[in-house]
Every structure is written in structure tokens, then in C-alpha cells.
Amino acid sequence: MTDLTLQQLEDEIITCRRCPRLVAWREEVARVKRRAYREEIYWGKPVPGFGDPQARVLVVGLAPGAHGSNRTGRMFTGDASGDFLFPALHKAGFASQPLAEKRDDGLTLLDLFITAVCRCAPPANKPKREEMDTCLPYLWGEMERLPRMQGIVALGKIGFDNVLRVYRQHGVDVPRVKFGHGAFYQLGDGLPWLLASYHPSRQNTQTGRLTEEMFASIWSQTRNLLNGKA
Q: Does residue 199 lie in a domain region?
């Protein structure tokens, strides 16, 4: 994997079948479908990261949604989480448009690359620890192939914890820090900063745990960090 370009790595991710439980689930969902999408052809494969290969910011989520990314083949596309995420990114200047409906909808990311800890939709949105461990090399591979990366925005505690885990797995001494919405950490000399946010899941946004204002502040802070104003 060390000799692959970023695009070649993403192409390799798409072919992965290392976790039998996840392979079975993602393919069953793609075969049975949700009634609202019964005329669509589901992606039903691991979902690669996407965005600007010269991005200064990496966004790390949890995993594809069963009828979102597992259907469309693009991270945070076609479900409620994406409906909350992309308008905020567009407003902050990180996305070319506020809507993300399908892979060929014209959306481009600006100075941003979006990925996840797991690449296959897990049952009940809960990947097992060993499944996350199997997928983490892909996250590390993407991090290594973003030469201008200055910071990481972790969407949710699992994304946050696994960013730290993947560094430690590769012998990088990062501090013991706690997740919290808006928590910000410098990870060390030569390392990116880490900014935490609640995940834009329907569970968080519909209950008011994560509001539009709270989320906007994350992307405003991200922009300020890139501009040297924070």
C-alpha cells in the first residue's frame, strides 16, 4: 500500500472484503433496499474518502450510512447527516454547493477531504472493534497521502478516538485528551491540530444536542485556524 497514490488507495478500498459481517450486511442492504430507493442501484461496497487531494483539513466520521453512503457511494451523501453537514461546509467555503445527493451531482470540496473510520455500513451503525482495527490502515494511508494537511476535524467520539489510536499504532506519541464538542488540541510538533465535534447524525441534530449554530462554529474555527486567526 505504501507505493499507491491517493486515488489508487481509494480504488483499493472499494474492493475490500476483509470483514465478513460487514460484507454480508452492506450487500444485503443493497439487495433489499429501502422502499423509497427501490428503483436505484445501490453502491453496496466500501466507501472511499473523497475531496481535495491538496486539502489542509481532514474530516473523519464513523462509517457509511446503510441507505446513505452505502447507496450513493460517497461519504455523507444521500442521508440526514449529509443534509446537515454540507450546507455548513458550503457556508464556510469548504464545499461548492450545499446539497449532496449522488456521486455525480457536481459537488466538489475545497481544501477539505472527508473520510471515515470504517468504510462499510455496519448493522445498527455500530462497527466492532476488530472491524475498526481492520479498516484503520486505510485511514492512515489517506493521512499519509495528504501532503498539506494541517488539521483534523473529528465528527463524533469514535472518529476522535480512532484518530488518536492510529497515530499511536504507528509509534507517534500523541497526548491523552478528552472528546467534547468544540474541544481543540495541538497534537505535537509536526502534527496536525485536532478539533472535535458532535457527529451530525439525526439523533444529535433532531434532539438539539447539535444545533446549526454549534456546527457552524466548528467550521468557522477551522477556517480561522487555516487563516492563522485562532
A: yes
Percentage of residues in the chain having pLDDT higher than 90 = 97
The pLDDT value recorded for residue 204 is 98
Question: Quick check: is 153 in a domain?
Answer: yes
In a domain, 1, yes or no: no
How many Cα atoms within 13 Å fall on the side-chain side of residue 58?
27
- Mark 96-114 as b/e (b = at least 16 C-beta within 10 Å): eeeebbeeeeebebbbbbb
pLDDT of residue 126: 94
Q: What is the mean pLDDT of residues 93-107?
A: 97
Model confidence pLDDT, tens digit, residues 13-70: 999 999 999 999 999 999 999 999 999 999 999 999 999 999 999 999 999 999 999 9
3-class secondary structure per residue, 1-42: CCCCCHHHHHHHHHCCCCCHHHHHHHHHHHHHCCHHHCCCCC
φ, ψ for residue 106, nearest 5 deg: 90, 0
What CATH number does residue 29 fall under? 3.40.470.10
Domain count, the chain: 1
> Does residue 60 form part of some domain?
yes
* Grid cell of 213 as nine digits: 449554530
| Residue range of the domain that includes 213 | 6-226
- pLDDT for 198-216, tens place per residue? 999 999 999 999 999 999 9
Which residues, 6+ apart, have CB-to-CB distance to 22 below 8 Å? 118, 120, 121, 122, 127, 131
CA-based nearest residue to 146, from 196, 94, 191, 188:
191
